[in-house]
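Workshop exercise sheet. Pairs work together: one partner reads the sequence aloud, the other fills in the structure field after running the prediction. Swap roles for the next sheet.
Pair: D.N. / O.F.
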Amino acid sequence: MTLTVALSGDSIVNRRISACDDEGFLSLIDEIRAADIGFTHLEMNLLDEADDHAYPAAEAGGTWMSAQPRIAEEFAWAGFEMVSHASNHALDYGYGGLASTWAALENQDIDFTGTGRTLADARGPVYREASGGRVACVSMTTSFTPWSRAGRARRDHGGRPGVNPLGYHFEMGPDALDQYRSLAAAMGQWVTPTDDGYRFNPPGLHNTVFNVTASEQPGVRPVLDSTDRQGNLRAVAEADRQADITVAHVHTHEWDTDGDLSDPAPFLPAFTRDCIDAGADVVLCQGSHTPLRGIDRYGGGIVLHDPGDFFMMSDTTRRLPAEFYDRYSDGFDGHSADAAPGQVLAERGISSMFDEDADDSDADYGGAVESPAQGYFSGDVLGTLVPVCEFDDEFDLARVTIHPGYLRASPTVYTGTPTRATGDRAQRIINHVDELSARFDTDIEYSNGVGTVDL
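Structure field:
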């Protein structure tokens, strides 16, 4: 007996995908439904527009991502039994939006992890039983607004709802640190020496800290927070003890600044391998919107550094707060208060980036971006992947099949939905992932429209 887990990257859905009759789309959905467990990342909030407990946060992840609670039915229709939820968008509508999202998922019997009522709840594994075994998932995020991280409960004080964080700080060499200290002081920040570096914070916001570790090595490097790192590895180990198959999920927008968006942040390759060593069978990273990153075959497991955006319906978000209009108001006539959602979203222009033939200058997320170069959806090849992992009767990873697809840009009913790639386009996507995987000494072989990871 084997157990199969079908996975995908980001899912931002605000329309009825069950109405789509595109054969290529349904072909990918069939792969998810055919698996024992279908898994995706829910990068949004599910809330009623009349809900007076869900207010837009003053600081969100980008677009204030929301859809009506009935969209949870669409995820169930597509075959997703488990979703990760830790991300920079999880608290776009505060604690009320978080609670509404949980309720919508629970009503559809969709298990979720990565957010919770306390840090222990957000970090704890979620489990799902299938006919062939028990699957666990731990979800964390490196990208989040500081106030959205879940809080640890004490015996004399309650915790705080939020995301499971995998935080990081920066290590700086002498020259870089001196420059940063001087700039921070000139900008009126508090600069406080610590045992291993400095702590920076704005005036009056003494818990809004930016920690820097001093180093003798020149340059600047991101370093994972040791407490978050150890806590998440313990959660992965606990999941491994309680389940037959363990998936570790990392939502991450960071990249290696010595490369481009297709290169994971310097701390990520080592940490994802640590997750495998701790007991994970699959590590799924996503969030780069580049949209694809490589695959790392390691220690009997597999690391998917980013299979790409599976659903990206950001451009048909129904409601947005005033701050979003103000950010993009330069592109349309009149006052931002008079604009409609379609105007501001067109100015931001995510869906125009889905077309491989679009000018690279369109891929700048609504304005000229100096870093990262050309912004989102600027990878050499655009696509999305549905990896299907097959485990044998000993729960060892036996096969990973990669089903290639791409996001449609039109018509509107299909905008931001995936469809299966075929022919030359399928081969081009798989070959691109193979090239991205070379740095991890991992080969992806293309045959008959799909890729297979050489285990």
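Discussion prompt: The chain has a mean pLDDT of 92. What would you look at next?
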